[in-house]
Design brief:
Strand order of the largest sheet: 4-5-6-3-7
Number of strands: 12
Strand content: 5-15%
Largest sheet: 5 strands, parallel
Helix content: 55-70%
Structural class: mainly alpha
Shape: elongated
């Protein structure tokens, strides 16, 4: 305790860091002589509340409920959270709001707990006694006597003690009142879990809505109303941290002409963000530094390592790898950092997260206090650990990849940037199967592009083959067919050089599938056939069956039904010979059923679908069962057996609803709606389409949502209600563009063009067809492009642009020949013969007339 002049220097206002004013109500005299204490004054020391206080209703309500409840001990609340999260503002709001509940006053003290030198409890006790009316001359000389005097003075009082920014339990324990009529409200960056009888109330960052409300109060509703998107971006850039939003608000108040977008632009640069976040005497960096400076050397080192992590969350094991330290020691240090609210526990046990702004601060500290060599070594240890785990093939790796995904992807890129070439491509390759399982194609492409560069740098032919093959698969899944084909062909070439037959069979199948989707029939057939032959050589029945199934599907698509059926029969024979499971038998019968339907053998098709459905039930393949029921229903519908068809549609829908599968429900509902529309049950169909659009979300099920809009619009076209058709199709176009669903967009544009064509507005219809053609060229499917060209050619004819139409039909003809679509090729050749006759070019007309005869002969042969 301070003596003499130092004691006399204690002033009643020393405590108030937020508001220096202290209101004192005089009421009598206090004397310590003879041990008798009498009250002289009622302190009301809560700093002033702020008008822009936002949110926190649940916290205030919880405090109020505690105050109003019956208590046999003083209520103690601990508001804990990271620096700048608004703990002090909440405490001040509560102290001012509930002053009348504490008739003997409110005491307030700032304890500087986050600083290097927290305020000593002796100093606070001395000041509280003075504030309660004890004269300086009557103050006890030792700590224990101060505690006794303080407790005695308030033992029967109803008083609220607000202790702001507590360092630990020891600092506040003796400052808490003992009367059940009293309460203590403590703020701390630590939860103070060992404080007896305390209620810990963790304080998190604001929601986006709360951030916007705060800015509205601070800057005025007019300035925010029309730019809520920019306000939301500011909130997210600031990590929704109240003090960061207050700093931004202060800057914008000084710059009334600045749009919020300008401030957001300044903050997007992560390298400058902490520097931008300062106003007057408040800087976010200084707020964080106060907590950082209080750490031990071991804690501060681990905090700097956390700043070098690559993902939004991290595990104790990953930090231990980076720090080259024992995992248990590191976990204890991470828990210390969590107690200081510099990091926070994640929802997954053993994992942690750090606020975005705090991460930038930790990274700054790492760059300032760790050498470049130390930082690089820490990152290298992390990416080497990534590779070891991926190549361990442990059953738990898939779960680990999900948790570490962003860190793993960033690790691949950093390995590439640092020329750790083998680590880079091998990690990318280790991740590929998980990217495929999770349909995470964007990250797959990102990693494999970095991996391909690394493999080229170090001359690894194996790495180049694997990276190119993965790029081809991912790009095909995203319908980037031309690019996919290029990478797959390069991968095949490299695997041929390496003599890896297994990989060759796999990549040939991928090439066949891609070429098939492009309707490059010749290359697709050759790739599938070679894949089957190699698969037989390496004795891989699964690969053989997969290739036969793909060949059957392709042959059926080009009208070569006999060859298709032969493939499916071989697939079924192989399944029987290898004792394949019900799923494989079911797939073979499903392919055969579709082929029989396409060849006009409807009864046999239904029979094959029944067998495939039986195998789906046996294997528990619910998704396959739904698909086969709907496909069988379509065959039955074409046969005129509408009641049976609708029963199958209804069964598929009932299964989807039973499974509570939202996407499956939308698809099955949509399929039934299409069927009812075809059957003329318009009212029922409309109700189902409306149900799909009311329940399906574009973000969750873009395929179902867009397809429902498209098909519903198409039904209105057929009804002749062109205005309603246009309304629905235009919504479908916007949705397809938003979700970047190129194939859907192309088909909708064609429908949109045909609506205008039916209106005889050919000049309006043409741009839709031309946009579809442009998109189809990029998409890479010959079948889709041919359909678009046919529509454009027809419209050019209607607009009497004969030469332009001829040029379009010539391109369409080349595609039909490529796809071996002899009927369409004959029609295109006949059209060209007629057009060139009209243009007076007899030689060209005769050439196309001869070609039409040639294609007619091929049509009869294949038929």
């Amino acid at each position: 305790m301070q003596q003499g002049e130092e004691r006399n220097n204690l002033r009643i206002s020393d405590h108030a860091s937020v508001d220096k004013a202290v209101v004192i109500e005089h009421a009598g005299h206090v004397s310590l002589s003879g041990g008798e204490l009498k009250q002289r004054r009622r302190p009301l020391q809560a700093p002033r509340d702020i008008p822009e206080f936002t949110g926190r209703q649940a916290v205030i309500r919880r405090i109020e409920e505690s105050i109003l409840s019956d208590r046999d001990a003083p209520t103690v609340w601990v508001l804990s959270g990271m620096a700048g999260v608004g703990k002090t503002s909440i405490a001040i709001r509560a102290a001012n709001k509930f002053t009348d509940k504490f008739p003997d006053g409110v005491l307030y003290a700032s304890l500087a707990g986050a600083s290097v030198k927290p305020t000593d409890a002796t100093e606070i006790l001395t000041r509280f006694l003075k504030d309660l009316g004890v004269s300086i001359g009557d103050l006890p000389n030792d700590y224990e006597s101060l505690v006794t005097a303080y407790r005695t003075l308030i033992a029967t009082k109803a008083i609220l003690v607000v202790l702001d920014d507590a360092a630990d339990t020891t600092q506040v324990n003796d400052l808490i009142p003992t009367s059940p009529l009293s309460a203590a409200l403590i703020t701390s960056r630590r939860p103070l879990a060992t404080l007896p009888g305390s209620q810990n109330i963790p304080i998190d960052v604001w929601t986006v809505d709360e951030c916007i409300r705060f800015l509205q109060v601070l800057l005025g509703d007019t300035r925010i109303r029309e730019v809520t998107d920019e306000a939301s971006e500011l909130a997210e850039i600031c990590g929704r941290l109240p003090i960061a939003l207050r700093i931004i608000g202060a800057q914008l108040m000084r710059r009334p002409l600045w749009p919020l977008s300008r401030m957001a632009s300044r903050l997007r640069d992560k390298q400058r963000r902490l520097e931008v976040l300062r106003a007057d005497d408040i800087a976010i960096r200084s707020v964080f530094a106060t907590a950082y400076d209080s750490l031990s050397s071991e804690q501060s080192h681990i905090f700097r390592v956390v700043g070098l992590t690559l993902g939004p969350t991290f595990s104790a094991e990953s930090i231990a790898q980076m720090a080259d330290d024992d995992e248990y020691t590191v976990e204890d240090l991470l828990e210390d950092l969590a107690d200081h609210h510099l990091i926070s526990p994640d929802d997954v046990p053993g994992r942690y997260r750090i606020h975005d702004l705090m991460r930038l601060f930790a990274k700054e500290r790492a760059h300032d206090e760790e050498s470049p060599e130390e930082r690089t070594a820490a990152i290298r240890r992390l990416v080497e650990w990534h590779l070891r785990v991926l190549e361990s093939h442990s059953p738990s790796v898939r779960t680990w990849v999900r948790l570490e995904r962003q860190s793993l992807v960033a690790g691949v890129l950093i390995a590439g940037e640092n020329d750790w070439d083998e680590i880079c491509w091998r990690t990318a390759n280790g991740l590929a199967s998980y990217h495929s399982l999770e349909s995470d194609y964007v990250d797959w492409i990102t990693c494999n592009k970095a991996g391909l560069r690394a493999a080229q740098n170090c001359g690894s032919r194996e790495g180049q083959a694997l990276m190119s093959g993965g790029l081809g698969q991912a790009l095909r899944a995203l319908d980037k067919l031309n690019d996919a084909r290029s990478y797959l062909e390069k991968s095949l070439q490299a695997f041929r050089e390496l003599g890896n037959q297994y990989r060759c069979a796999e990549i040939l199948w991928e090439i066949g599938k891609t070429a098939s989707e492009q309707w490059d029939v010749t290359r697709a057939i050759s790739a599938y056939t070679e894949s089957v032959e190699i698969s037989k050589e390496i004795k891989s029945p699964y690969f053989v069956a997969r290739g036969l199934h793909a060949l059957g599907h392709l042959y059926s698509g080009i009208g070569r039904h006999d060859e298709a059926l032969a493939c499916y029969e071989k697939e079924l024979q192989l399944a029987a010979e290898t004792d394949a499971n019900a799923r494989h038998h079911g797939l073979a019968y499903q392919g055969m059923a579709a082929c029989l339907d396409a060849s006009g053998m409807a009864d046999q098709s239904v029979d094959a679908y029944e067998k495939s459905i039986a195998f789906a039930r046996e294997s528990g393949d619910i998704k396959g069962l739904r698909i086969r029921l709907v496909r069988k229903a379509k065959v039955l519908e074409r046969m005129g057996r509408a009641a049976e068809a609708n029963a199958a549609y209804q069964e598929a829908l009932a299964m989807a609803r039973s499974d509570e599968d939202v996407n499956a429900i939308a698809w099955a509902t949509h399929s039934l709606a299409d069927a009812l529309a075809r059957q003329g049950e318009i009212k029922e169909a409309d109700a189902l389409y409306a149900e799909v659009l009311a329940t399906a979300r574009l973000e969750d099920d873009p395929e179902g949502f867009i397809s429902a809009l498209h098909c519903w619009g198409d039904t209105y076209t057929k009804r002749g209600d062109f205005d309603r058709a246009v309304e629905l199709l235009d919504k479908a176009v916007l949705a397809a563009r938003r979700c970047e669903r190129e194939q859907d967009l192309i088909q909708i544009l064609l429908c949109r063009s045909r609506v205008e064509e039916k209106r005889d507005d050919f000049s309006t219809a043409l741009p839709y067809a031309q946009e579809a053609v442009s998109a189809a060229r990029s998409y890479g499917s010959a079948r889709i492009l041919a359909d678009c060209l046919r529509q454009e050619g027809r419209l050019l004819e209607r607009l009497e642009n004969v030469r332009g139409a001829a040029g379009i039909y010539e391109e369409q003809l080349r595609l039909e020949v490529l796809m071996q679509q002899w009927e369409e090729a004959r029609k295109a050749a006949n059209k060209l013969s007629s057009l060139w006759t009209e243009l007076g070019d007899t030689a060209r007309a005769e050439k196309y007339d001869a070609r039409a005869s040639e294609y007619s002969a091929k049509e009869k042969t294949d038929g």
